[in-house]
């Protein structure tokens, strides 16, 4: 159903985001076609490419909006760790990101719908990482250099990759409705598992 006449006077870019957001939350990624999104937004199909370059570009913009507040909290935590005189612990660095995974990434219907596409599209996943997570990941790696002077920069990069993989594995298992759920693994257990990977 197209949006109301008064809504049609709004910014087409915002209308596309709102329409896609609604479809993703209500019906999932498969239903969020360009035709369905533009019909609900009440705009021409070419508007998606004009404003976002592609449907993936639209989805990345939506993902950014859903992740913005959580990412800002992670960055604020990292800033407070940087401002301290003593080096942070690995657990302190990762806890806010793991908390975000448990509380937001898993439960947000729109992010869940988008992940169903990201896992099958490496290019989209890479674009998403660069556009939404690069600052968070870069600041976390910088904090890890302070926290783990016994590790080389290369070792930190490798172990950081394993840690992010462990977090995303938890999220992906939740998406797939597998047996591993919040009762099986707590935030503290996952943080402790990650921290153990950075020991000498």
The secondary structure category is mainly alpha
Proportion in β-strands? under 5%
- Low-pLDDT parts are 178-182
- The CATH architecture of the largest domain comes to Orthogonal Bundle
- Ends distance: 58 Å
Globally, the shape reads: elongated
Strand and helix order: HHHHHHHHHH
Number of structurally distinct domains:
2
State the helix count: 10
Given this structure, which CATH class of the largest domain is correct?
Mainly Alpha
Taking Cα atoms only, what radius of gyration do you get, to the nearest Å? 19 Å
The percent range for helix content is: over 70%
The biggest beta sheet is recorded as: none
E-strand count? 0
Would you tell me which CATH topology of the largest domain applies? Tetracycline Repressor, domain 2
Mean pLDDT: 87
Please explain how this structure is put together.
There is one protein chain. The chain has 200 residues and is mainly α. It folds into 2 domains: 5-52, Arc Repressor Mutant, subunit A (Orthogonal Bundle), CATH 1.10.10; 66-196, Tetracycline Repressor, domain 2. Helices cover 74% and strands 0% of the residues. The chain is built from 10 helices and no strands. It has helices at residues 5-8, 12-27, 34-41, 46-52, 55-83, 90-105, 109-118, 122-147, 153-175, 187-196. Helix 6 packs across helix 10 (187-196). The longest helix is centred in the middle third of the chain and has 29 residues, at 55-83. It is elongated and about 55 Å long. The model is unreliable at 178-182 (pLDDT under 50).
